[in-house]
Design brief:
Number of strands: 2
Strand order of the largest sheet: 1-2
Largest sheet: 2 strands, antiparallel
Shape: globular
Helix content: 55-70%
Number of domains: 2
Length: 291
């Protein structure tokens, strides 16, 4: 005989471990595997920021796969790192006019980072903002906000620069989250929105002078965040669209993962990798001939 108890996910009542249906609502109770999966999901969302953790997890997994792609773990404490161009291309980097031929990179680049310092700073900012904004907007809207502002930020970047050096990272979306804070103040007619807008724009300019950042993506994501944040804040009875927003967030998640997969299946990075290998072999041959 089984010992212990389990909670019905439908009504929340406690049942005996051996029960197959809930004594209160009559619904079928999940089996051991389903109960374990529900437990993991509950733990993941226990602190109210599951979308923030999901975004961070995707970024970290992509960075880990980039290290594995080169056959060695790179722990360069730097913004740019030392990844080969083929590896960057494999996981969604934007470079020159490639985005016009492979537009999914505009989204894949939001989850790709060049070095430990790069991903570390962005994840710290993401978690800090997520703890405030995700409980305010809800997880579905927060994920939509991150996806849209990151995508629009890199779209503005591509339009502004045209042919650009390799660029990627979550900072455009993070500036979108910052913009959403201004959007909330604007929707509430809070006069502090003007000061916040000026402060954040000045910060963006200073950052662009101090570091080699993508200013166009930052500003594009920032203003997109103001619009989306204000629209979300002005919603009347947002709970009525909870199901719709969850579905849209699901589409954003599938599109995000799909964009990384499409980048990994692109023939471009494979062609560049072959050229890199040929160049390395030629350099090794010259070294041996000179000895």
């Amino acid at each position: 005989m089984a010992h212990g108890s389990r909670v019905c996910p439908q009504c929340g009542r406690l049942n005996a471990a051996e029960d197959k249906t809930c004594y209160n609502c009559g619904k079928r109770l999940p089996g051991p595997l389903a109960s374990s999966a529900l437990g993991v999901l509950t733990d993941f969302s226990a602190d109210g920021v599951p979308a923030t953790k999901l975004i961070a997890a995707i970024c970290i997994v992509v960075y880990g796969l980039m290290m594995l792609s080169e056959g060695s773990f790179r722990f360069d404490v730097a913004v740019s790192g030392a990844f080969k161009l083929s590896t960057l291309l494999r996981f969604g980097v934007l470079v020159q006019e490639l985005a016009w031929h492979e537009p999914w990179r505009l989204l894949a680049a939001v989850y790709m980072h060049f070095g430990l310092l790069h991903i570390g700073m962005n994840m710290f900012s993401l978690i800090s903002l997520g703890r405030t904004l995700e409980p305010h907007f809800g997880s579905a809207r927060f994920f939509i906000l991150y996806t849209l502002t990151g995508l629009l930020g890199f779209t503005v970047s591509q339009w502004w620069y045209g042919s650009s050096p390799p660029t990627a990272g979550a900072s455009g979306a993070i500036f979108g989250l910052v913009g959403a804070v201004v959007g909330v103040l604007l929707a509430r007619r809070d006069p502090r929105w003007r000061r916040s807008l000026v402060n954040y724009l000045v910060y963006a300019v200073i950052l662009s002078v101090m570091l080699p950042v993508n200013t166009a993506a930052h500003i594009g994501g920032f203003f997109a965040g103001i619009v989306v944040g204000a629209l979300f804040e002005r919603e009347k009875q947002p709970h009525r669209r909870a199901g719709l927003m969850l579905a849209v967030a699901g589409v954003c998640f599938v599109a995000s993962v799909g964009s990384v997969v499409l980048s990994a299946t692109s023939p471009v990075w494979k062609q560049v990798r072959q050229a890199e290998l040929a160049r390395d072999e030629e350099a090794q041959r010259r070294r041996l001939d000179s000895e």
